[in-house]
Amino acid sequence: MTEKIGVLGKKTAKRTGVERIVNAPLPTVYGQFRAVGYIDHDRGDEQVALVHGEIGTDDVLTRLHSECLTGDAFGSQHCECGDQLASALKAVVAEGSGIVVYLRGHEGRGIGLLAKLRAMALQAEGLDTVEANLALGLPVDARDYGVAAGMLHDLGVNSVRLMSNNPRKREALQQHGIEVAETVPLLIPPCESNITYLRTKRERLDHVLPHLDALAHLS
């Protein structure tokens, strides 16, 4: 908690960290969830965790899903994000309990929507996703998972079974005090539109994508 100077010269407390604001039922095509809404006072983002069933405290099946408007809402085949989100929601329902933390502010690995679209335009000209970000003078990956850990702590979670192919998510959660008991692969069959992107994620961003080995026929 830090302090700021108010309009009358008095010091007022500035809130920091993650604060739970609302807990509302959310019926979806995948099953019944609770939408637990938060404010990230450090960044100003509104965040949500979709909780299914009685999650308990240990080995909770969990997905940290980075916001991707083009994939999640528009069905873009440039990435596999929309399919990963749907698969994660289905998985926690099939499990009987679990959490999907939807992380706003993570668009384009943290560079924002318009910058992501500019990077996609460069990729259409032949750059890969890493080269495109760097060509724009932007970080390759600017995401922070501290808010996700804060939300999990608030939900009483000590350890997770993390649905992810990205080892950085595991490392980040553990750094913030959430134990990762297991990494659960979330592998989506690629298509011609995203195979190059996925190979770049594996070769340059260390994502674990063993299913790409059998797809040499895709360019």
Automatic annotation (TrEMBL):
Cofactor: binding comment: Binds 1 zinc ion per subunit.
Q: Which is one Pfam family of this protein?
A: GTP_cyclohydro2
Per the record, what are the reactions this protein catalyses? GTP + 4 H2O = 2,5-diamino-6-hydroxy-4-(5-phosphoribosylamino)-pyrimidine + formate + 2 phosphate + 3 H(+)
Catalytic site positions:
D141, R143
Q: Does the keyword Ion transport apply?
A: no
Q: Which InterPro entries match?
A: GTP_cyclohydro_II, RibA, RibA-like_sf
Q: Where does GTP bind?
A: R63, L64, H65, S66, E67, Q84, E107, G108, R109, T129, S164, K169
**In the Enzyme Commission scheme, what number(s) does this protein have?**
3.5.4.25
Kindly list the residue ranges recorded as spanning the membrane: none
Annotated ranges, domain GTP cyclohydrolase II: 19-185
Alphabetized HAMAP family for the sequence:
RibA (MF_00179)
- Say what the protein does: Catalyzes the conversion of GTP to 2,5-diamino-6-ribosylamino-4(3H)-pyrimidinone 5'-phosphate (DARP), formate and pyrophosphate.
Q: Per its record, how is this protein called by name?
A: GTP cyclohydrolase-2
